[in-house]
Amino acid sequence: MAIQQVVVLHGLYMSGFVMRPLCSRLEKEGLSILNLSYNTLTPDRETIFNQIDAFISDKETALVCHSMGGLVARAYLEAHSSQSENVTKVITLGTPHKGSHIAHQMQQKGFEVFLKNSVEFLLSKNGDW
């Protein structure tokens, strides 16, 4: 079975709009795309994960993610939904898998308020990724 679809996740302070050029290229290759926009400062895991699950259904899927989007994808896969078993490829670009140094510095200086709830993703670490 070949990959039929791709979930695209953007980075911090961005929206799905910035991922449109990539999505257009993938669509031209015949892939179905979920270009998921989410509020990066107040990411709602349940809503995001449910949207990904609904799109994946039972089809082989790849995740293509920029920056914080890769952290969201990692958290999604770690939640182990039955649909996540259909994710066969993950590509992350500029994702701080060892934690965001800038977010850590902001937290130390008391400026994490500017990152709101994104801190839970940005400070998470997984050296295996």
Helix content: 25-40%
Overall pLDDT, averaged? 90
Q: What structural class is derived from the secondary structure elements?
A: alpha/beta
What order do the strands of the largest sheet run in, or round the barrel if closed?
Answer: 2-1-3-4
What radius of gyration results from the CA coordinates? Answer: 15 Å
What is the number of helices? 5
Largest sheet: 4 strands, parallel
Which overall shape is indicated by the principal axes computed on the Cα atoms? globular
Residue runs with pLDDT of under 50 for 5 or more positions: none
- Following the backbone from N to C, one meets helices and strands in this order, namely EHEHEHEHH
Plain-language structure description:
With 129 residues, the chain is an alpha/beta fold. The chain has helices spanning 20-28, 45-56, 68-78, 101-108, 119-122, and strands at 5-9, 32-36, 61-66, 87-93. Strands 2-1-3-4 form a four-stranded parallel sheet, with helices on both faces. Strand 1, helix 1 (20-28) and strand 2 form a beta-alpha-beta unit. The protein is globular, with a radius of gyration of 15 Å.
Question: How is the topology of this model organized?
Answer:
Blueprint (H helix, E strand, L loop, with lengths): L4 E5 L10 H9 L3 E5 L8 H12 L4 E6 L1 H11 L8 E7 L7 H8 L10 H4 L7
Parallel strand pairs: 1-2, 1-3, 3-4
